Amino acid sequence: MLALNEQREAVGAGAGRARAQVDLCDVRHKFAGGEFLFRPLNATLLPGQRYALTGASGSGKSTLLSILAGWLDPSEGTVLRHGLQSIGWVFQNPHGSARRSVVDHVVLPLLATGASRRHAETQARLVLEAFQLAHRADDAFSVLSGGEAQRLMLARAVASSPDLLLVDEPTAQLDMRTAETVNTALQLVSAGGSIVVVATHDERTADACDQTIALSE
Ligand SMILES: Nc1ncnc2c1ncn2[C@@H]1O[C@H](COP(=O)(O)OP(=O)(O)OP(=O)(O)O)[C@@H](O)[C@H]1O
Ligand SMILES: [Mg+2]
């Protein structure tokens, strides 16, 4: 695997990025007819940092990700987004196009940003190498293992280098070794200057983050 700084250069991450920041001020949420899910949250989320959202099932981790994304307004409190131009989301169950090649999953979002096919393909292959997926580049998405598919989704996220990356349960159902590579991948994304927020039940993933925001004991 390439050294982390080489990987960062490979993905061209962080170049020209405005300084993003997200402030949570006394944020709480309850759905109609329900109780508040978590205590009032206060936090400042900064670039280059990984934040673990921990808590029991139903404590509101995915809900808080939706609030951070701006898809859901919190019932109380405010979310202030400074310099936030792009948000990426890696869902728990990797969704890909079964017959499309692995490399095309990374190429397509790069093309959408205006890159030429040639440049996008070169970049995509470098990113896949950083995520230990180079040998899979020309295979169809459908033949990937769960862990490979999860890494591909992270590779795609790092290629588009969002200011804020939201990741929901990236290591659920993965073996320890595969989970380790996902944790390394998260480190790579934050090293590129993204704010990374990861909802997780996995203590090792939480330990691999810079800070933990606990939604329940
Ligand atoms: N759209 C909704 N309407 C009503 N209740 C909801 C809605 N979405 C989630 N909930 C409820 O809010 C609570 C928190 O859900 P959420 O999915 O945020 O939990 P979680 O911490 O991510 O759980 P898990 O670890 O199982 O993924 C749950 O009780 C859930 O049923
Ligand atoms: Mg959840």
Automatic annotation (TrEMBL):
SUPFAM superfamilies found in the cross-reference section: P-loop containing nucleoside triphosphate hydrolases
Keyword check for Nucleotide-binding: yes
Coiled coil start-end: none
GO molecular function list: ATP binding; ATP hydrolysis activity
Gene3D superfamilies: P-loop containing nucleotide triphosphate hydrolases
Pfam families recorded: ABC_tran (PF00005)
Keyword Nucleotide-binding: yes
PROSITE patterns (alphabetical): ABC_TRANSPORTER_1 (PS00211), ABC_TRANSPORTER_2 (PS50893)
Keywords attached to this entry: ATP-binding, Nucleotide-binding, Transport
Ranges of residues in domain ABC transporter: 22-217
The name this protein goes by in its record: ABC transporter ATP-binding protein
Source organism: Cryobacterium shii
Organismal lineage: Bacteria, Bacillati, Actinomycetota, Actinomycetes, Micrococcales
